[in-house]
Specification:
365 residues, mainly alpha, 16 helices, globular, single chain, two-stranded antiparallel sheet
């Protein structure tokens, strides 16, 4: 971004507009990753799960095309680095999956529901964000580093932790070839369902979420890479990690809390802007579709369950370094091993929690 006075601000604004599209479409189509798991577990409906997988397949394809043509350096992301915290990824994924089920939705769904007038999501937002901040920079960070990321549970690789690198296919052509195979396999499964092919909202959700993730990589990894006006050195501008980033919603919630507390010393980044973009995009759809409704907890027990879920999501999301979007779509798009571990951990944690909830409900009945 040469000749732009404040390129980091431009990156943040682009993140906001991408997230606004995300929030608008997610509200319109009822895109929900927790709902996707619930549909499969409870009624064997794969519609929303296929929408999620469609987003993943398109993100893999688009992200690796960006890398092949030089618009993104996959070495410059925190997903692909050579240290694999596999135990933290597994525990974080399981914990996040449990939490999102108790709270009625993951991080992005919390923001979408908040934009639609759901006051439950205000409580989840605050507890999730604060717990994420404490896990990222506070006392819970000590536990994560000392226990979950201890040496017995860590693998150090010579190269990247991506599937192509581990398979000795580190050159761009081989990497793109493997990505194409993975993406096409996922897309073939998604569109094998005649029912899904006829469901416009699910297709729209998958296409938009996947495209927004790819666009996010382009914004931070290409447009955002340049000379820092303050320190006169090349770096990734406008991101929390100082690396290329795309859509994720737990870390940015922690950064939002940090920004509110230390406003004078912080700036709005791509991630923070995306938090508010999703809320406002969802709000715009809710207003224009006349679906905006104030909602609150049904009982003290309902509130308690949402608080516990939010705390588990905050801890799990930071421990796993991502959520159902941040790892399961954005991270998986890089073909990083840790992202797959987190993805399956989230699925297992959420599905198991639903089974336990169903058992307890039947027992009470």
């Amino acid at each position: 971004m040469e000749n732009i006075e404040n390129p980091a601000l431009v990156v943040a604004w682009l993140g906001f507009f991408l997230a606004l599209i995300f929030g608008f479409v997610a509200n319109k189509t009822s895109f929900c990753t927790m709902g996707a798991v619930s549909d499969v577990v409870n009624i064997s409906d794969w519609g929303r799960m296929r929408a999620w997988l469609l987003a993943i397949g398109l993100a893999i394809l688009g992200t690796n095309l960006l890398a092949y043509f030089g618009y993104l350096d996959l070495r410059q992301t925190y997903y692909t680095r050579g240290t694999v915290y596999w135990f933290a990824a597994l525990v974080g994924g399981l914990t996040f999956g449990i939490g999102m089920t108790l709270a009625g939705g993951c991080g992005q769904r919390t923001l979408v529901r908040l934009g639609g007038g759901n006051l439950k999501s205000v409580v989840v937002f605050l507890f999730l964000g604060y717990t994420a901040l404490v896990t990222m920079n506070g006392i819970l960070r000590m536990f994560v580093d000392a226990v979950l990321r201890a040496e017995p549970f860590t693998v150090h690789l010579d190269g990247l932790q991506t599937l192509p690198s581990l398979m000795g296919m580190a050159d761009k052509t081989s990497q793109l070839g493997l990505a194409l195979v993975a993406a096409l396999a996922i897309l073939a499964f998604v569109f094998a369902s005649r029912e899904f092919r006829g469901h416009r909202d699910n297709i729209l959700a998958g296409v938009v979420v996947g495209a927004v993730v790819v666009a996010g990589w382009y914004v931070t990894g290409y447009l955002g890479f340049g000379e820092d006006p303050q320190f006169m050195e090349l770096k990734y501008l406008g991101t929390d990690s100082g690396l290329a980033e795309s859509m994720t919603f737990v870390g940015p919630l922690a950064s939002t809390m940090d920004l509110w507390a230390y406003w004078r010393d912080k700036t709005v980044t791509f991630g923070i802007a995306s938090v508010f973009g999703v809320i406002i995009g969802s709000f715009i759809y809710a207003v224009f579709s006349n679906s905006f409704r104030w909602e609150y907890f049904n009982s003290p027990q309902d509130m308690f369950r949402h608080i516990i879920g939010a705390i588990l999501m905050g801890f799990g999301g930071v421990t796993a370094m991502g959520c159902t979007i941040g790892q399961a779509v954005t991270g998986v798009s890089t073909l990083a091993i840790s992202s797959f571990i987190v993805f399956f951990g989230i699925l297992a944690g959420s599905a198991a929690t639903m089974k336990v909830q169903y058992y307890l409900m039947m027992r009470e009945a």
